[in-house]
Specification:
Blueprint (H helix, E strand, L loop, with lengths): L1 H14 L4 E5 L9 E5 H15 L6 E4 L6 H13 L2 E4 L17 E4 L1 H8 L2 H8 L3 E4 L6 H8 L4 E8 L4 E7 L10 E2 L4 E4 L4 E5 L8 E9 L5 E6 L3 E4 L2 E4 H8 L7 E8 L3 E8 L19 E4 L13 H15 L1
Parallel strand pairs: 3-4, 3-5, 5-6, 6-7, 17-18
Antiparallel strand pairs: 1-2, 7-8, 8-9, 10-11, 11-12, 12-13, 14-15, 16-17
Helix pairs in contact: 2-3
Length: 328
């Protein structure tokens, strides 16, 4: 299997004499690139996670993500650090499809894998028998979070990026400790930039203070919530509108895929646009402020997506502009 070959290549690189190795960034803080990180810092990250979750030698852990990126690499490093029994599966949308009845202690998945798994009763049961599940690599849809809230095991959403060697904060999604806020590891210090974007100081895993593009709110106890991306802010008539906030307010009303975007406007600078595949029921805009209400509502055959299933924001802008240019 290709994943076994990738694992052997990573282990060879891990055990070579160099104190460094290269990792590929996903582009969450800028243009995707390769960066050099210290193996010692990867071990620090593994220790933070394993200690927090109480993982110990012999615990069965599932690797079901590609080893090209930090999430997969860190599952291996956590196993090396804590002596976990690492179960290696070829990355797929259904990582528990042919898994036996042996319960897992620990697994890490992306939201799409969790969504797919919950659609199949046998796979859902296996996931619910997994003691601890962490979910990262993308935003968790409100409907999916509602499903996760009913699960009997322990499930966390993670916050982090390649530059922080996986996550630096966890948010409990179910049980009495469920929260809308992420809680950083004790060694992590957070602040906000003048643009209200999150700034991370995590000396155990990252040599430099890291400025992100994530607009955040930090509570007095140090926990935080992510409001959206700085590059997803629309400036319409001098009013800054966060795309994700508008989409979240519309979610209860729209049962088909949709996206908020913008087009150039001679008076406002940018005008809000709702791209939608289905109908928009009356009252859908009542929860929006007057500045958040779309100037254009455009029906499209499909909402553009990236290869990882996220909304392709640049393609949405281009599509909206093309439609409006043809109709005006």
């Amino acid at each position: 299997m290709p994943i076994q070959e990738d694992l052997q290549a990573f282990l060879a690189e891990w055990h070579d004499p160099s104190p460094f190795l290269e990792v590929q960034t996903s582009g969450s803080t800028g243009t995707p690139k390769r960066i050099r990180v210290r193996k010692e810092q990867m071990l620090n990250s593994a220790r933070l996670t394993c200690d927090y979750l109480g993982l110990k030698k012999g615990d069965k852990a599932l690797l079901c993500m590609p080893l090209r990126y930090i999430a997969g690499k860190m599952m291996v490093v956590r196993s090396l650090y804590a002596g976990l029994d690492l179960i290696v599966r070829e990355p797929s949308g259904h990582p528990l499809a042919d898994w036996g009845d042996t319960p897992l202690r620990f697994a890490a998945m992306i939201p799409l894998q969790v969504y797919n798994t919950l659609r199949v009763p046998e796979e859902r049961k296996r996931l619910e028998l997994t003691d601890i599940l962490i979910i990262g690599g993308g935003a968790i849809d409100t409907a999916l979070e509602q499903e996760i809230r009913q699960m009997p095991n322990t499930v966390y959403s993670t916050y982090g990026m390649t530059e922080t060697l996986s996550h630096i904060a966890l948010r409990r999604l179910n049980g009495p400790e469920a929260s809308p806020y992420y809680h950083p590891f004790p060694s992590v210090k957070l602040s906000l930039s003048p643009d209200n974007t999150l700034v991370i100081d995590a000396p155990l895993v990252c040599d430099e203070r890291l400025a992100t593009n994530d607009v955040a709110r930090i509570l007095p106890d140090g926990s935080f919530a992510i409001i959206g991306r700085k590059d997803n802010i629309i400036n319409s008539g001098g009013i800054k509108i966060q795309i994700e906030e508008v989409e979240e307010r519309l979610r209860p009303y729209l049962d088909r895929p949709y996206a908020i975007t913008a087009v150039p406007d001679p008076r406002l600078g940018e005008a809000l646009v709702l791209l939608r595949q289905g109908e928009v029921p009356s009252g859908a805009f009542e929860t929006l402020t007057k500045y958040q209400r779309p100037r254009y509502v455009l029906k499209v055959e499909a909402i553009p997506q990236t290869g990882s299933g996220k909304i392709d924001r640049a393609a949405c802008r281009k599509l909206a502009k093309n439609i409006i240019t043809k109709t005006l």
